Amino acid sequence: MDKLHTGKTKTNEVKTEVSEMKATKHGRRFMRRRSWKDMSPVQKVGNVLIGAVELVLVTLALWDISHRPDNEINGKKRTWVMASLIQPVGPIIYFIFGRKKAAAPAAA
Predict the structure, then answer these.
(1) Considering only CA atoms, which of 102, 58, 65, 101 is closest in space to residue 80?
(2) Residue 106 belongs to some domain of the structure
(3) How many degrees, rounded to 5, is the angle at CA 94 between CA 91 and CA 97?
(4) What is the pTM of this model?
């Protein structure tokens, strides 16, 4: 029984060494991409929330671009549609720079 356990441990050690060797590229270590089942429940919820926020931002930006007249957008609509698809900063950049500022109401 002890030999079997020792054999499994050595096999696991070899697998670990091989995975560590694979995790090195050009002498530098990089993080292995984590799968969904490797994540804790908090990390899973965080990823789902971030994805939902990105989806809402893209949807709002595309809706705004399609419903806003050309003269109220800085540049071409096609350019802002493409920029809005760049995650995660595209929609935010559109909302900051893509829409023209509303004219101040005239003082009475």
Answers:
(1) 65
(2) no
(3) 150
(4) 0.63
The answer to whether 94 touches 84, Cβ cutoff 8 Å, is yes
Question: Would you state the pLDDT for residue 34?
Answer: 78
Please name the residues in contact with 19: beta carbons below 8 A apart, sequence gap of 6 or more: 32
Instruction: Based on the fold, state whether residues 29 and 79 are members of the same structural domain.
Output: no
Q: Which range marks the domain in which residue 19 is found?
A: 1-33
Within the chain, what is the greatest distance between any pair of CA atoms?
Answer: 93
99: which DSSP letter? B
- pLDDT by residue (tens digit) across 45-69? 999 999 999 999 999 999 999 999 9
* Measured distance CA(2)–CA(69) in Å, rounded: 77
Q: Which two tokens stand for residue 84?
A: 């809005």
Do 28 and 46 reside in the same domain of the chain?
A: no
Q: What is the pLDDT of residues 1-60, one digit of tens each?
A: 455 555 555 555 655 555 555 555 565 666 777 788 999 999 999 999 999 999 999 999
For residue 88, is it within any domain?
A: yes
